[in-house]
Amino acid sequence: MSLIPEFAFSPLHGLLVLGLLIAARYGPILAADRAGLRRADFFPPLEGREQQAMPVFMLSQLALLLYPFFLTLKFGTPWVWLGAPLMAAGWLLIGLAAAAFGRGAGQLASGVYRFSRNPMYVGYFLYFAGVGLATASWLYLLLALIEQIALAWIIRSEERWCLAQYGEPYRRYMQSVGRYLGRGQRQF
Questions:
Q1: How does residue 185 score in pLDDT terms, banded at 50, 70 and 90?
Q2: Architecture of 11-34+48-187 per CATH?
Q3: Could you tell me if 118 and 155 are in contact, meaning their C-beta atoms sit under 8 angstroms apart?
Q4: Phi first, then psi: what are they for 182, rounded to 5°?
Q5: Rg, C-alpha atoms of the chain
Q6: Distance between CA atoms of 102 and 10, rounded to whole angstroms?
């Protein structure tokens, strides 16, 4: 990992990274229910710091999606061996969460949503961290961390919206399943 960020145009690596992510995110939703796309891209109303976090989230996510076109996967190095399993785990988690999400609102207390209220976001972080390692890019890893911090604020608006929509059942769900990982009292 070099201190100087890499910028070498690499369209095939960018397409690979972006294509896998889009396939995991939207493929299962399209297969289950096209109406799920509207739900998948919905952001509830933001308040206070959530509003400040949204542009940071959007810009960091844009950078995370475009920067791989200027990075190369470090095949034949330990970086790929460190990053590829994280990418695979993130990709799988995004796909499983998207499949559950595509089945419909109100059905999210099953599947991977039994272990995380936000498995898709956990999957994104794993995937992006894996890309950062597989490309040996500290800048990409930093962007993934910035995105995750901004996302933590946005998740609060989603939870507030879900509480307003689903009431006490969602409150019980929040008490039994962690925001990112965990069940019961041991949550993260």
A1: very low
A2: Up-down Bundle (1.20)
A3: yes
A4: 115, 165
A5: 17
A6: 33
Q: Enumerate the domain spans of the chain.
A: 11-34+48-187
For 8, phi and psi rounded to 5 degrees? -125, 115
Distance of CA 21 to the CA centre of its chain: 9
Three-class SS of the chain: CCCCCCCCCCHHHHHHHHHHHHHHHHHHHHHHCCCHHHHHCCCCCCCCHHHHHHHHHHHHHHHHHHHHHHCCCCCCCHHHHHHHHHHHHHHHHHHHHHHHHHCCCCCCCCHHHHCCCCHHHHHHHHHHHHHHHHCCCHHHHHHHHHHHHHHHHHHHHHHHHHHHHHCHHHHHHHHHECCCCEECCEEC
For 100-141, what is each residue's pLDDT tens digit? 877 765 556 678 888 888 999 999 999 999 999 999 999 999
Tell whether pTM > 0.85. Answer: yes
